[in-house]
Design goal:
Length: 208
C-alpha cells in the first residue's frame, strides 16, 4: 500500500507594499509638519519613479545605491543628496521595518560623505545686522516672519529646525518651557541635533 503523499504547502503570495501607503502610515504616527510630509512624499515619489515600480518590498540596498549614484551623476550637491534624499528614505524604511512591514531597512547603510569647502563657509551676522533683523521681525504680523528670527537668535537653532516645529514640540520639561527638535519630524544635521532647548525669557515675556 502506497503511503499517502504529504500535502503540498503553497506559499502565500507576497503582497506589494506601496510607497504612498508607507508615507501615510509614517505620517499618521509621527505627525510631521505639513511641509515635511509634502517634501518626504515627493522624495519617495522620485525614488519610485527611478525604480519604475511602487512596491517597497522589492527594494534592495543596491537599488538605493544606484539611486544615490544617479543623483550624483545629475550634479546634485552632496548635502542635498544626504539631507534632502537619503535621510528621508532611511527614515521611512526604518519606520516600515520597525512596524514589521518589511524585513529590514534597505537604505540603512547607504549614506553620502558630505564635506564643506572653505568657500562654502557661511558668514555670520554682525551684532548690528542681527539687531536690524530682529527689530524688523517685530513689525511683522505673519507669525512665521515675526517669531522664527527670534527663536533662532535666542536658541542657536537653524531656520529649518525651527520651521518644522509642531505645537507639541514646544512643551514644559521639569517646569521649564523648551523647544524639542525631533528627527522624526524632519531631517536634522547630525544625531546630536536631536535635543531640547530651553526658551529664553525674552521669548516668553510679552513683546509690544
Amino acid at each position: 500500500m502506497l503511503a499517502a503523499a504529504a500535502p503540498l504547502r503553497v506559499a502565500a503570495a507576497r503582497q506589494p507594499v506601496g510607497f504612498d501607503e508607507l508615507v501615510k502610515g509614517w505620517a499618521a504616527e509621527k505627525r510631521p509638519a505639513e511641509k515635511t510630509r509634502y517634501e518626504w512624499t515627493r522624495v519617495m515619489a522620485q525614488f519610485s519613479s527611478f525604480l519604475g515600480h511602487e512596491d517597497a518590498a522589492r527594494v534592495t540596498p543596491d537599488d538605493v545605491q544606484r539611486w544615490k549614484e544617479a543623483l550624483i551623476a545629475k550634479g546634485l550637491a552632496p548635502k542635498t543628496i544626504s539631507d534632502g534624499k537619503l535621510v528621508e528614505l532611511r527614515s521611512i524604511f526604518q519606520w516600515t521595518a520597525d512596524n514589521r512591514r518589511l524585513m529590514s531597512n534597505p537604505a540603512e547603510r547607504v549614506s553620502m560623505d558630505v564635506k564643506r569647502k572653505a568657500s562654502e563657509t557661511i558668514r555670520i551676522f554682525t551684532d548690528e545686522e542681527a539687531s536690524i533683523v530682529l527689530r524688523a521681525a517685530l513689525t511683522q504680523k505673519d507669525p512665521v516672519l515675526r517669531w522664527v528670527p527670534w527663536l533662532c537668535a535666542y536658541s542657536g537653532a537653524r531656520v529649518s529646525e525651527v520651521c518644522q516645529l509642531r505645537v507639541q514640540d514646544v512643551c514644559q520639561i521639569e517646569g521649564v518651557w523648551c523647544m524639542r527638535f525631533d528627527p522624526e519630524v524632519g531631517p536634522l544635521k547630525t544625531a546630536s541635533s536631536e535635543r531640547a532647548v530651553p526658551l529664553h525669557q525674552a521669548l516668553l515675556d510679552p513683546v509690544s
